[in-house]
Amino acid sequence: NKEKSIDRFNKKILNAMTGSTKAFYWQFINKNGMAIDTEVGISPIVINNKRIFYQAIIRNISERKKIEKILKENERKVNMLLESIPDLLFIFDKNNVYIYFKPDKNKLFDVPHEHVIGKNLTDFFSGETLERYLSGIEKCRKEKQVVEIYYTLNSPIGMRKFEARLSLLPDDQILQLVRDLGPA
Question: Which one, out of 9, 33, 55, 139, has a CA that is 20 to 30 A from the CA of 159?
Fold first, then answer.
């Protein structure tokens, strides 16, 4: 039992008039048969404490809907790209606090996210390795280029050699791609 479009529209209008909803999405078909995405807003016009009329404002949001669709598709592509990278991925903010973590493809180095997210670079590195990292981060941010760092770290599967590639993201965030180079 399919409800007619005009009946659904009238229900939306009634809901808006009773205050159940302020604005709603609606797709109209223009005289050329093209679909037009709109946002319909209904508000009462009150005179002497009585609702006399209702004002409807209909905004064409077709362009916004196209952009939203493109953004969703781009997000899907980026997520697929990230998932296809076999290495560890991290993002840390301008204060060197980890805000993103993706384990390696084989999950050899997977740890609970709370062991990484919100932690600082200094929680994982110290001494010469930390200095190399901080120097690489500074170079990456200043020269806006990819910087490679090699180091040894105790991992969930023992001491390993790693290669990290640092890339600058917006807001001084750093994307860190880490590749396992084998036992140390």
Answer: 139
